[in-house]
Amino acid sequence: MAGPVLEMRSIVKTFPGVKALSDVTLTVRQGEVHAICGENGAGKSTLMKVLSGVHPHGSYEGDILFEGEECRFRDIRASEHRGIVIIHQELALVPFLSIAENIFLGNEHASRGLINWNETLRHGTELLRRVGLSDHPETRVADIGVGKQQLVEIAKALSKKVKLLILDEPTAALNDEDSGKLLDLILELKKQGITCIIISHKLNEIRRVADSVTILRDGRSIETLDVKAPETTEERIISGMVGRDLDHRFPERTPYEGKPEAAPAMEIRGWTVFHPIDQQRKVVDDVSINVRRGEIVGIAGLMGAGRTELAMSVFGRSYGRYAGGTVLKDGQEIRTKSVAEAVGHGIAYVTEDRKHYGLNLIDTINRNISLAALNKVAKRGVVDEQEERQVAERFRKSMNIKAPTVFERVGKLSGGNQQKVVLSKWIFAGPEVLILDEPTRGIDVGAKYEIYTVIDQLAAEGKAVVFISSELPELLGMCDRIYTMAAGRLTGEVPRAEATQEVLMRQMTKDKEVTR
Amino acid sequence: MSTDVTDKSPAAAPPGKGGSGTDGGLLQLILGGLRRNMRQYGMLIALGLIVILFEVWTGGDLLLPRNVSNLVLQNSYILILAIGMMLVIIAGHIDLSVGSLTAFVGAFAAVLMVNHHVAWPVALVLCLLMGAVAGSVQGLLIAYAGIPSFIVTLAGMLLFRGLTEILLQGQTLGPFPNGLQKIGNGFLPAVGPNTNYHNITLLLGFVMIAAVVWQEVRDRRRQQEFSLDVAPAKLFLLKLVAIVAAILWLTLLLASYDGAPIILIILGVLVAGYGYVMRNTVFGRHIYAIGGNLPAAQLSGVKDKRVTFQVFLNMGVLAALAGLVVTSRLNAASPKAGDGFELEAIASSFIGGASMSGGVGTVLGAIIGGLVLGVLNNGMNLLSVGTDWQQVIKGLALLTAVGFDVWNKRKSGS
Lengths: 516, 414
What we know:
By secondary structure, chain A is an alpha/beta fold. Chain A has three domains: about 5-240, 3-Layer(aba) Sandwich (Rossmann fold); about 265-340 and about 435-440 and about 465-515, P-loop containing nucleotide triphosphate hydrolases (Rossmann fold); about 345-430, no CATH class. Chain A is built from 17 helices and 25 strands. In chain A, the strands form six sheets. Chain A has a six-stranded mixed sheet, with helices on both faces. The radius of gyration of chain A is 25 Å and the shape is globular. By secondary structure, chain B is an all-alpha fold. Chain B is globular, with a radius of gyration of 23 Å. Chain B folds into two domains: about 70-185 and about 270-410, ABC transporter involved in vitamin B12 uptake, BtuC, CATH 1.10.3470; about 190-260, no CATH class. Helices cover about 75% and strands about 0% of the residues of chain B. At the A-B interface, helix 10, helix 11, strand 21 and helix 13 of A face helix 9, helix 12 and helix 13 of B.
């Protein structure tokens, strides 16, 4: 085997308040396909951003050696100059430019500012052939599918004389056929001597293309395994990804005292949703779940599993194109075609992305809290500002929102306090079913505990809670039952007593076989 | 943060009452209040400075009763448009058609009243309805068909201008019945004993003072009832005195000339009404919500399309009202009426604290912005500055105001 082409030694990267990477070491051999896997938030993307100069030298600690030389990249251009090219999950193509224009964007075949179109088209065609695309290079990028766009990105990388190609979850947005093609291309590029790092949590993919795999967990590199070795089973990789103690503490649950009802508080049957742009792709595929009063039901899944999409689609068709399925509340079928209807039926959805979908950051705490249920503090369309303020004050105290007054702009609060405002808003709406999407994402341990307490309390009051989370310990610590999703489908339902991180992770990484 | 002024002196430990009774304490309270509400008060202070500046430069002509009366009459239609425009901009849109729509409604009024001798109150209602129709067509296209407001209203700007010329066939139409002329030029009638002042205006002023004081005191009571924190008593009192003094001054000023112009009363009602709607109603809140963060508002169950539609419908009605006022004031409908009004209304909103990205602004802000432009216009006219330089200076005023806003926002770190 060849020697190392890349060594990253003792990389430490801190963001304000969070240690994203602590002492990560990564060694990639010349000409191999090296997989990196780990849970959401394990530090995979951050590590690649350090490598490609998105986080410039000086903003992290540790050394990077590429082809034996120490590298100190100032920006992404510097790393590309050395032949390290990263392809992000969100593709960076300009949709209304042609394939050829995109390939050479920022790197045009030109002399004195004039583009040489003949050379652009010739070279573009050649690169497209290398990645197995037969489309004309003058086709607009918007007119080809996501799978082909991914290949255009790779062609763009090839035009930069790439030596080390980094792919961040390249198949997350692709269907099976396109995924297969892409993985074949990676193996083909490997034959041409291009080293490749692939971030993925699809274990079957890793087994198919990778030579070795490095596992990250909580910002640390845990181990590097030889994929071809017989002892490297999927179970082995999974235990590396989750092998962590339950070091979070969870508040004591007060059980719900109410009588068990005949029907679940909310039941979703056969829910199916197509992707809003890629009309062929099922993002949620025939999913059925239910939740009872006083119950906390978890939904586990990795990025792209379709959990948020399911929740948002149920909540007033706020995502994608609906393609079937019904919602039942207490056994009765209900309409949830608009958000207002869903809220009217006592359903609340607390978004995972509070900045974009949850809060009006330029407005105050009191106005954010009242927005979803303004009629509760209004008479005949007129808001009673004093009553509204009193409501907000009550939540400020009960939820322990750290702000001098309720007239503080929400944008000024910390993540944990913002999350408390979003929760307050939906608790004030008085729902019977709460769908919480990553309610503790990006907030510190203390605030997490407070939010767990609130969730427990809601369940004790007889609310039905659906708890979507990427943190398995959190689900294990909080939920009565846990559903698992992968690639848009429901892959399992585990009662609390039987749930372990290993069991869940196996079901979360179940994917339709890529090779078949 | 709000109480760190009193925290500094340990002697004044009992909070709320503002224990330090010196003038320095009061000044600190005022400065503290100003600093927290920089964006709100900044423009008001700027307006005050501009007024003082021109008062000095014109040798006291600016604030002569007659000129203040004129100032109100001259700027009334821009202020009416600015109110509607503020709502549009807060909702995250823009309306370029209002100038043309103003002219179009004026022309429509002329055709009704001058050519067909329709009774003026009937014509007035028909004109407002016409504005509502125009506004709702644009609103439908923007809210439900999803065409960007810039495009729809740019088309509207051309379309209504064209329709105006078609209606008027290039002519200027007039004169109008007396009743309509009163709207833009009339004053409240003079009645009662001779007091050297205009009696009804005085009365109205006093009623207004009473209403404002009652409202403020009641609000404060209710806050205390709910045991919420209230502003320090001194600051509250000072605010009250300032408001009362301002109203009293304007009342006496106008009452010593011909009394309050009718249009000022209309404006006052509009400002109070729309201010109330934006501050206190569910509808107003929803406008701020969709402008501030559309997806979040949608996910909170706000019917964003309906709100957007209503905002444009409202703009249409206000543009029609402005059209009536202009026509009434000039006593003629002209194909060139309302030229550039949309830009003045937009500039007023931005000077008054609106944000390009929506979600921010107040009705009072739009009025202050409009008055800044109005005083600049009027003051420069008194100084016989040519229109060429007037445009340059107004452009700079807009840049300065918004630049200050941007700088202030960046400084406060957001």
